[in-house]
Amino acid sequence: MANHHMYDRLIAITSKENVMVDEYLKDHTYTHLGGTADFFVTPQSYDEVQQIVKLANEVGIPFTLLGNGSNLIVKDGGIRGIVMNLHHLNDIHADGDRLYAQSGARIIDASRAAYSESLTGLEFACGIPGSVGGALYMNAGAYGGEIKDCLEKAIVVDRNGDLLELQASELDLSYRTSNIPAKGYIVLEAIFKLKKGDQAEIKAVMDDLTYKRESKQPLEYPSCGSVFKRPPGYFAGKLIQDSDLQGKQIGGAQVSLKHAGFIVNIDHATAKEYIDLIHFVQKTVKDKFGVKLEREVRIIGEDPS
């Protein structure tokens, strides 16, 4: 199908401002990595999301949902077809002890909104840089808390473009995973069930977690967050540190000197440099300690042709 015809159909669903052609994804990801998307689409309503999914199905064009790319590496060849980003869907509001957060909002902002309403249960998320949708996708967690602990329901669009309201139990949330990728759900909104709490106590917990994060994590550079899952019986960061890999650099990608579990983009790294460094770390740790580090970070897109 000719690109201009596809463009016309997309702008008929949303608007010109919300459809970009051959858009560099490194301008839209937290890591500043990634080649171009054929179409980068930023819908403004649930109905537009449904129509775009239906169009992709009808035409048979590849379709990818991109959050803010904080735990994701997009390859240098970019992504074919439609890439959808939901940053316009970012409303957050409370009603009683429930917090409603649209998927394009940052989970940090949901955590702050809960605090301002004296609601407790989302403090753990006060330093997680991902979107609400991304946080559900991978059951994000930190400091002993995870999305699974406080999520009540989610509103999603399925592969056919139908709108569904699902209970949290229907998402199979477990350590850094859910069934959202396998089922091809697009999360539009999360409904968190929290508890009324003492605002000063909530703030104290968040301040403490923020201090822990700022003192340990390399926030001065773009990174894709924690690169590896925790291997049973070990800590990924400690294994990498004990392998003398801190400061190891390939191109502009570096194993952080501040926290070995992070790989930072210190100088216009390419996705290939990032991925090569991940493989180098995995091989070194396997050779030295016999432990296989599994990626927590997702890698999508294609290599340059």
UniProtKB/TrEMBL annotation:
Gene3D superfamilies: 3.30.465.10, UDP-N-acetylenolpyruvoylglucosamine reductase, C-terminal domain, Uridine Diphospho-n-acetylenolpyruvylglucosamine Reductase, domain 2. The lineage of its organism: Bacteria, Bacillati, Bacillota, Bacilli, Bacillales. Pfam families: FAD_binding_4, MurB_C. Its cofactor is FAD. GO terms for molecular function: UDP-N-acetylmuramate dehydrogenase activity. NCBIfam families: murB, PRK13905.1. It is found in: Cytoplasm. PANTHER family: UDP-N-ACETYLENOLPYRUVOYLGLUCOSAMINE REDUCTASE. It catalyses: UDP-N-acetyl-alpha-D-muramate + NADP(+) = UDP-N-acetyl-3-O-(1-carboxyvinyl)-alpha-D-glucosamine + NADPH + H(+). Cell wall formation. The keyword Cell wall biogenesis/degradation applies. The active site is at residues 176, 226, 296. It comes from Tigheibacillus jepli. Belongs to the MurB family. It comes from the Bacteria. This is UDP-N-acetylenolpyruvoylglucosamine reductase. Pathway: Cell wall biogenesis; peptidoglycan biosynthesis. It is an enzyme of class 1 (oxidoreductase). The keyword Cell division applies. SUPFAM superfamilies: FAD-binding/transporter-associated domain-like, Uridine diphospho-N-Acetylenolpyruvylglucosamine reductase, MurB, C-terminal domain. Keywords: Cell cycle, Cell division, Cell shape, Cell wall biogenesis/degradation, Cytoplasm, FAD, Flavoprotein, NADP, Oxidoreductase, Peptidoglycan synthesis. Transmembrane segments: none annotated. Residues 33-197 form the FAD-binding PCMH-type domain. PROSITE patterns: FAD_PCMH. Its EC number is 1.3.1.98. Its main location: cytoplasm.
